[in-house]
Design a protein that fits this description.
With 878 residues, this protein is α/β, with parallel strands linked by helices. Helices cover 67% and strands 9% of the residues. Among the domains are: 281 residues, P-loop containing nucleotide triphosphate hydrolases (Rossmann fold); 68 residues, no CATH class; 141 residues. Strands 2-1-4-5-6-7 form a six-stranded antiparallel sheet. Strands 8-12-13-3-14 form a five-stranded parallel sheet, with helices on both faces. β10 and β11 form a beta hairpin. The longest helix has 56 residues. It comes from Secundilactobacillus similis DSM 23365 = JCM 2765.
């Protein structure tokens, strides 16, 4: 796969961004936070689906509010593809097209194209960065083999999962260096117990003999145990043969089916055939439609009687028809519409509306000014009247205040003081009586002296009254002047009312009525004019109708004058339409005849081309071609199925399966193996029983209760150890069998990968290290001088070079299964300049797929050509 265009609608910091990748190797430069990791996440998300809210920090939702998603254009196996993924359920909504075949594909087709790689495996194999390099010391053979198997063996994920489960179960029972596992504890306990037994049995004379027998029994028991294990493995292999037998039957059937197709037809042949037959069918359909249209046009015949009258009097008809618009005007003298409009105005304004007249153009401005002046004077008069009332109210209030201030002593306050003093003397006692008397004297004093204090403001009130008196006189003067002006205006408006006969309407309505008065006057004139026209037009219409007597056979004039004119109009239109249609039918028949000849010629040529193509395919008919193409497709399908079956069944498995006539024979062998296994287990249990009996005899000869108890405890312990050992050995055998099966399915890729790792590691280290070896526990490298190092003993930079070599070798060897871009995200930050240069050079020389190297170090741009670099800072990132 080679990505050519990346278009981001909205993803992380990118939105509306387009990236062009025109080379298989591309160095993408950008400083920190320029979006390199975001670009890698976008590529993975477009191919395998967006992350869900469960991993929301890995979703890269756009902050700008842009549409979440984008497009990828890439090449794969000589086809151009276009992929679009936007926000949606199940990893996003996918639109997938094969541009080369011009075909729309679904999401399942994308999954098939990428199979067996998913997002996790993509990051494990095709994408690595600094973090992966730092974990290089954790590499082991088991991880490498699993990754090879996941690519090389279809459906191996379940087997690998089963292997891990069995390994966990085995480790839970026993580890070689474990101390907490049950079997390890029992073995330590057994060793300690055996030591105690050895000490206790030294006192017995027959110890050597019994021990010899015990040793022979142990040998026999070990032999039986090994035979049980071998038989269990044989049984597991036979059971696997039962599982694989349907594939073997399919393999035999496919091998027996011979390909009788003499000439294989390709998809291109089928596309050419489909195109030619479609072209022929389209031409035949067009020819049939043209013949039907030609027959239909010949079946249409005009009205011969109308055509005869029109053709005999064509000149006279055209002359009379030209007079129709003018004569229709004579029938349009009806006054019904105008009378209805006039009645509407009468209903709205009353019968006096027909007597009123609109203002003349000369008088209207003057009348408008008179009405405006009257309204302004009335408004001003109301304002001054309100002002006069306000002044009068103020004058009355101040007059009342002045009168009150001239009244002398206030009897009310004086009387209140005397009452308070008397009540205090009569009712209160002690100091309250004195206090009440003082309060009464103060109130009486206020009534005596308060009026004298108010006289000081009398002069101010008198001044205000004098001013208000003058203002009232001014108000009365203005009102008198305005009354005279209004009287003059009223006189002039009364003259206007009389002249234009507007007595039935208020002055406020006059200006608003002018448009309606103009329309009423126009309606009255129109009604009068049309009544006069109606009287003079009847005679002219009668003379016109008499001139149409020549058309009486096809034109029967009846009804009113307007109806007769409409009948004449319809007759002329129908006759002209028939003439035009007759001429059009002649032209259309000629055109259809030419089209018919053209389609016939094209159809003949198309049929010749199709026959020539069928001849190249060694057939003569389209049906024979279709049958031969179906046979070719079936043969191709059989070959594909055979290849798939061969991938699932190794050569050795096919040879073993060929030894059986049917699945029943294998099942019978399984049952026999089970019986043999059961027999061996019975013998083993018998031998174990004899060993227990001998152990009991040894215990009995010891004449020691403690010794006998030790022997019994050891026997129980041996039985428990035997049971756990059986379980542990069974798991280990299954793990080895599954591992070997998957190794066979991976078609020997592990040696190829190791060979490529050694080659790349030698290049990266400038031939300093010549050999790489994977053990069960770690990875070892051999220096040029023969010294061997574990990966943990290497320097950080050298260990990272080893990891780079491994990743490059892995993707190169696996390229026959799946070709995806390798993405190296700033993985050489700990390399010196020489190591970085060698690593970049190795990336550019891979040659088996696209490599995208992302770096934040601008110095690395010097290692590649300018047309192989892309600067993220130059993109339109908003």
């Amino acid at each position: 796969m080679q990505i050519t265009t990346i278009k981001i609608y909205g993803f992380g910091q990118f939105h509306e961004t387009t990236v062009k990748l025109n080379r298989e190797f591309q160095l993408i430069y950008g400083p920190n936070e320029a979006g390199k990791s975001t670009l890698v996440a976008f590529i993975a998300s477009l191919l395998f689906g967006f992350e869900t809210a469960k991993h929301r920090y890995a979703m890269y939702q756009p902050k700008s509010g842009a549409l979440y998603g984008g497009e990828l254009t890439f090449k794969h196996h000589d086809h151009d593809y276009w992929l679009k993924r936007v926000a949606g359920p199940h990893g996003g909504s996918v639109t997938f097209r094969d541009l080369t075949a011009d075909e729309t594909l679904d999401k399942a087709a994308l999954t098939d194209l990428l199979r067996p790689v998913d997002k996790d495996l993509f990051y494990q194999i095709f994408c690595f960065g600094e973090r992966e390099l730092q974990a290089v010391d954790q590499l082991d053979r088991f991880e490498l083999v699993q990754r090879i198997q996941r690519i090389g063996a279809v459906g191996s994920d379940n087997w690998i999962g089963l292997t891990k489960q069995l390994a966990r179960e085995s480790d839970a029972l026993y580890k070689p260096r474990g101390r907490v596992q049950p079997l390890a504890k029992l073995l330590r306990e057994y060793d300690a117990l055996t030591q105690e037994v050895q000490t206790a049995k030294q006192a017995y004379e027959s110890y050597q003999k019994l021990m010899a027998q015990q040793a022979e029994g142990e040998t026999a028991l070990a032999e039986l145990q090994q035979r049980v294990v071998d038989q269990q493995q044989k049984l597991a292999e036979l059971q696997q043969l039962v599982t694989n037998y349907p594939d073997f039957v399919t393999y035999q059937q496919l091998m027996q089916q011979t390909d009788s197709t003499s000439h294989r037809l390709s998809t291109t042949d089928w596309q050419t055939f489909t195109k030619l037959t479609a072209q022929r069918n389209q031409l035949q359909s067009a020819l049939d439609q043209t013949e039907v249209a030609l027959a239909d046009s010949e079946a249409i015949q005009p009205d011969s009687e109308v055509m005869a009258v029109y053709q005999a009097h064509q000149s006279q008809i055209k002359t009379l028809a030209a007079q129709l618009p003018q004569l229709r005007e004579l029938t349009n003298t009806a006054t019904t519409q105008e009378a209805q409009q006039l009645a509407s105005f009468r209903q709205r304004y009353g019968e006096q509306i027909v007597m009123a007249r609109p203002f003349s153009a000369i008088d209207q401005p003057r009348i408008s000014r008179l009405i405006a002046a009257q309204q302004a004077n009335q408004t001003k008069q109301a304002a001054i009247e309100q002002q006069r009332r306000d002044h009068q109210q103020t004058f009355s209030r101040l007059s009342d205040q002045a009168t009150a201030s001239r009244g002398g002593i206030s009897v009310k306050w004086l009387g209140a003081g005397v009452v308070i003093a008397l009540l205090s003397v009569l009712i209160l006692t002690g100091w309250l009586k004195s206090l009440g008397g003082v309060a009464g004297l103060l109130v009486a004093a206020y009534g005596i002296f308060h009026p004298m204090l108010q006289q000081n403001g009398q002069s101010a009130i008198d001044a205000q009254l004098t001013l208000l008196s003058r203002q009232l006189d001014g108000d009365r003067q203005q009102l008198g002047d305005l009354a005279g002006e209004l009287a003059e205006l009223t006189t002039q408006l009364t003259e206007v009312e009389r002249h234009y006969q507007l007595g039935a309407y208020s002055v406020d309505q006059w200006l608003a009525m002018q448009a309606d008065l103009q329309q009423v006057s126009q309606l009255q004139r129109t009604i009068a004019r049309r009544q006069q026209q109606r009287q003079s037009g009847d005679a002219e219409l009668q003379r016109y109708f008499e001139q149409w007597q020549f058309a009486a056979p096809v034109l029967q004039l009846q009804g009113t004058a307007a109806q007769k004119l409409m009948q004449i109009t319809n007759f002329v239109a129908a006759a002209e339409d028939q003439v035009n249609r007759s001429q059009a039918q002649v032209s259309e028949r000629q055109r259809l005849q030419h089209v018919q000849q053209d389609y016939q010629q094209q159809l003949t040529a198309s049929q010749k081309t199709l026959q020539a193509f069928l001849k190249t395919a060694n057939v003569t008919t389209t049906e024979a071609f279709e049958r031969q193409y179906q046979a070719s497709q079936q043969a191709q399908q059989r070959e594909t199925q055979l290849t798939a079956v061969k991938q699932r069944l190794s050569e050795s498995e096919r040879q073993r399966l060929a030894q059986f006539d049917s699945v029943a024979a294998i099942e019978a062998a399984v049952e026999t193996a089970k019986a043999q296994l059961q027999s061996l287990m019975t013998k083993r249990d018998g031998q174990l029983k004899q060993q227990s009996e001998r152990a009991y005899a040894i215990e009995k000869k010891g004449h020691s209760v403690a010794y006998q108890q030790l022997l019994q405890r050891r026997a129980d312990l041996e039985a428990e150890i035997e049971r756990m050992t059986d379980d542990w050995l069974t798991n280990q055998l299954l793990i080895k069998w599954i591992d070997q099966t998957l190794v066979n399915a991976s078609q020997g890729r592990q040696p190829q990968i190791l060979k490529a790792v050694q080659q790349f590691f030698a290049v990266l280290t400038d031939q300093r290290y010549q050999q790489v070896t994977f053990t069960d526990e770690t990875v070892q490298v051999t220096r040029a001088d023969g010294i061997v190092f574990d990966v943990g003993e290497l320097s950080g930079g050298t260990a990272e070079q080893l990891y780079v070599a491994l990743r490059l070798a892995f993707t190169q060897v696996m390229a026959d299964q799946i070709q995806l871009p390798m993405i190296v995200d700033d993985s050489f930050v700990n390399f010196d300049r020489q190591r970085t240069a060698r690593a970049v050079k190795l990336l550019t020389e891979m040659g088996n797929g696209q490599v995208l190297y992302l770096t934040a170090n601008a110095d690395n741009l010097a290692f590649v050509a300018a047309d192989q670099t892309l600067n993220l800072t130059n993109l339109a990132v908003k």
